[in-house]
């Protein structure tokens, strides 16, 4: 596990998938429709309360460092300092 500092920007390892379509998708990926992944941008903070990690389900204890966003909380095992590369999956017919 890397050393994280309060206020540092990190990213969730868990990827969220969104449906995309259009000519720009066709030009970039060769398919008109598909799904693209993205990670959640988080900030390292001390937990003000106990939380449950949105990825693995581990309890994040009050006072423990964790990655958080507006409504998401991730333990330090489920965050990374480098943003994962977006992935594309074509829409199955």
Which helices and strands occur, and which strands form pairs?
Layout: E1 9-21, H1 23-29, E2 33-46, E3 51-52, E4 59-60, E5 65-68, E6 73-74, E7 79-80, E8 88-90
Antiparallel strand pairs: 1-2, 1-7, 2-5, 2-8, 3-4, 5-6
What key phrases describe this protein's structure?
93 residues; two-stranded antiparallel ribbon; 1 helix; six-stranded antiparallel sheet
Describe the structure.
The chain is 8% helix and 45% strand. It has 93 residues and is mostly beta strands. A hairpin with a 6-residue loop joins strand 3 (51-52) and strand 4. The chain is elongated, with a radius of gyration of 16 Å.
Please give a quick description of this structure.
With 93 residues, the protein is mainly beta.
Task: Provide the structure class.
Answer: mainly beta
Count of the separate structural domains: 1
Number of helical runs?
1
Whole-number radius of gyration? 16 Å
Strand content: over 45%
Helix/strand order: EHEEEEEEE
Q: Please, what is the average pLDDT?
A: 93
Report the biggest beta sheet as strand number plus sense, adding barrel if it closes: 6 strands, antiparallel
- Can you tell me the overall shape? elongated
Ranges where pLDDT stays below 50 over 5 or more residues in a row are: none
Could you tell me how far the N terminus lies from the C terminus, measured between alpha carbons in angstroms?
41 Å
Helix content: under 10%
Number of E-state strands = 8
